[in-house]
Amino acid sequence: MQYCFGVDLGGTTVKLACFTADGTLIRKWEIPTVVTDGGSHILPDIAASLKDYCRSAGLTEVLGIGIGVPGPVTGQGIVNRCVNLGWGVLDIPKELGALTGLPVAAGNDADVAALGEYWKGGGQGSDSMVLVTLGTGVGGGIIHGGQIIHGAHGASGEIGHMVLNRHETERCGCGKYGCVEQYCSATGIVRMAKKMGFAENLTCKDIFDKAAAGSAKAQAVLEQVYAYLGEFIANVCCVFDPEMVVIGGGVSKAGQPLLDGIQRYFSQYIFHAAADIRFSLAQLGNDAGVYGACKLALSRFSEK
Amino acid sequence: MQYCFGVDLGGTTVKLACFTADGTLIRKWEIPTVVTDGGSHILPDIAASLKDYCRSAGLTEVLGIGIGVPGPVTGQGIVNRCVNLGWGVLDIPKELGALTGLPVAAGNDADVAALGEYWKGGGQGSDSMVLVTLGTGVGGGIIHGGQIIHGAHGASGEIGHMVLNRHETERCGCGKYGCVEQYCSATGIVRMAKKMGFAENLTCKDIFDKAAAGSAKAQAVLEQVYAYLGEFIANVCCVFDPEMVVIGGGVSKAGQPLLDGIQRYFSQYIFHAAADIRFSLAQLGNDAGVYGACKLALSRFSEK
User: What ipTM, to 2 d.p.?
Assistant: First the structure.
């Protein structure tokens, strides 16, 4: 039997998973992300954990490792600055390959999650897909003909940093002003709610709950969020026109009302030729990363 | 010797060109586009003209025909409504193939022009490219790994219909409000100039000329245009991060000052990872379409 590893590297934990070559998840575990010493322990820790697992499970035939990383990654797997990890420029396939003796494929975490949703989640059956991840930030991934579009500088799918409001005076985490992320992420939604008169200690879920319970004030906040989401996703689809848009991330737990709200404004803003783009919710939750990482490795290193 | 045809189908004329298989243009001519009878004469006219040329030039070995069409075209060459031509849904490779007995590849005209600039113009030497066409309207084409990204509904690269101003009250030709095209096309620039106090009968070139001659009022118009262009192109590049952005269309005759103006605002709006994207001017002018159409056919039908 042949196996493949999927690794989802986050700022606090690393998710690791072992799959069979046909894509069945057989084991999943986590290790902490040690960000001290410029992040120099991260890849050795991952390598040690994978080797331990191979030994204890008696795996001999491993096709390779796929890994998703929180930063821009080129098609060759070169990462260019992961602020959260302390990394500068790093050749992940080379480094992790040397530590494990296995072939390694690397991608940006949001891109890799998109590939996971395309393979086994909300984008199944489509040929091209955009994943919009509404979490603490806003991320995205572009799948074209079953492949991630990484971008020349690893920045394709960085849709959270499109400019939505050129008049914004507060600064985004990226250093610019008026990014999508400042309005449509969980933190962005809370920020907007406060501006519209809500109290300090509110969570994003509270706002959705209040709206569902009939609060006109909360509904007004969400209406603004839906308008922004529908508009910016329509703009994304004028650049790359996919078969499907999949909405993921913590905010997507709001479910159908969120999807309905987005689509209402999307129809208003989308170019007519692309009006048939289908929407769905992400299905893999926190596992999208390990699935997509495994698929990235399988499509590079498996025979078929 | 093997040959290949490139056809650029416009609303008033059809440009046709014959190339050798290594991409040398050997003959170029035009015929009128006859849009009566629901556009049903267009493909027969093209077929007859190409067959005439083959006969008179004594060509026997023709690899195929590439054609660019003014409307959304899928990767399979199916066009979905060309308003200017009177066409509904049409399978161009099938129809034109039956009329000529040659293999046919079709694409959207802006996408095909992008492929031309990538192959023999401003995008030479890059692996991925976005063409931004600033003409009567604003069009675009996305080249990834040397291939056009057509989009699931033929709408990839329809960047002229991204929303730039959600508060716009005048309607765009597409039926929406606030599209890029309403501000950054030649007609859009004139529209803005009038709003900023210029007289009625001004052309886009007049505005660039006046700005070059020191008119502060004209410079203010262009500053606004550059700001919009820099912002929307940065947004495009957050979706699809190319090695190069090539600026074409009639407005691009303004040359280096235009490029400098765009890049000044692009740097301000672009996500840091993609800040190294290079800019250049298109080089093929009105020939971009026939070059790109030829390349589209060559990459489908030639051996190598």
Answer: 0.94
